[in-house]
């Protein structure tokens, strides 16, 4: 069997970088995607593992960049079997003060970026009649959250997109699922104060924030060839928050 190739967007750090390491450990060719600075620490780790990878700069919300990421992946590895749409941003604020540009920007990266990447990768997956698409949503896309009208809308949109793609591509051997993390310790949640983190932990049935490994494990599970009968699902990895 050919070696599988996985593209993980926004993977220079945090959950994305953890996914890159998890796929590399499983022997996949990995496509790292970053926006500004090359993620040297991650690249060093991949080199020391002897991993097969390329690192591609690109903004997923820009159509040409999404095209270029997929093109470079195919040039390097022949095809793409797994796409993990992890790139995401937050620009939090209360509704009354939220600027339209901040609403649009978050939708642009989190939702349109996910759409751009799925559209670009679907051709090669359809040709091979095989694919695993995993979109990183959020518990906030299921439950909503005060101060995150833009972010919650984008992540709820990702769920609708996931189910539509799952239905559209099901007969082509391609599954599409979403992983909805709860609160995970990364740069994104680094802005929270210790008091806020303690209050959040208290509200989580499992009483602690998640780790990047928790999310990478779920992504890897959905990416497996054996997970072929799971599609259009939203797997909450949230310590029980959204049940
Ligand atoms: N940390 C959490 O608690 C949490 C919870 C639920 C969902 N998520 C989601 O998980 C994903 C990863 O988040 P994280 O916590 O690792 O945060 P992070 O900020 O550490 O990582 C986000 C990554 O996305 C990249 N990125 C941003 N805009 C991009 C663009 N336009 N094109 C390509 N890459 C871009 C960033 O450079 C960064 O590497 C995001 O989609 C986020 O919304 C995180």
Automatic annotation (TrEMBL):
What the entry lists under PROSITE patterns is as follows: ADH_SHORT
What function does the entry list?
A: Catalyzes the NADPH-dependent reduction of beta-ketoacyl-ACP substrates to beta-hydroxyacyl-ACP products, the first reductive step in the elongation cycle of fatty acid biosynthesis.
| Residue positions binding NADP(+) | 10-13, 35, 86, 151-155
- Enzyme Commission code: 1.1.1.100
* Catalytically driven reaction(s): a (3R)-hydroxyacyl-[ACP] + NADP(+) = a 3-oxoacyl-[ACP] + NADPH + H(+)
The protein's name in its UniProt record: 3-oxoacyl-[acyl-carrier-protein] reductase
Looking up InterPro entries in the UniProt record yields: 3oxo_ACP_reduc, KR_dom, NAD(P)-bd_dom_sf, Sc_DH/Rdtase_CS, SDR, SDR_fam
What protein family does this chain belong to? Belongs to the short-chain dehydrogenases/reductases (SDR) family.
Subunit architecture: Homotetramer.
Pfam families per the UniProt record, alphabetical:
adh_short_C2
User: Organism source for this protein?
Assistant: Youngiibacter fragilis 232.1
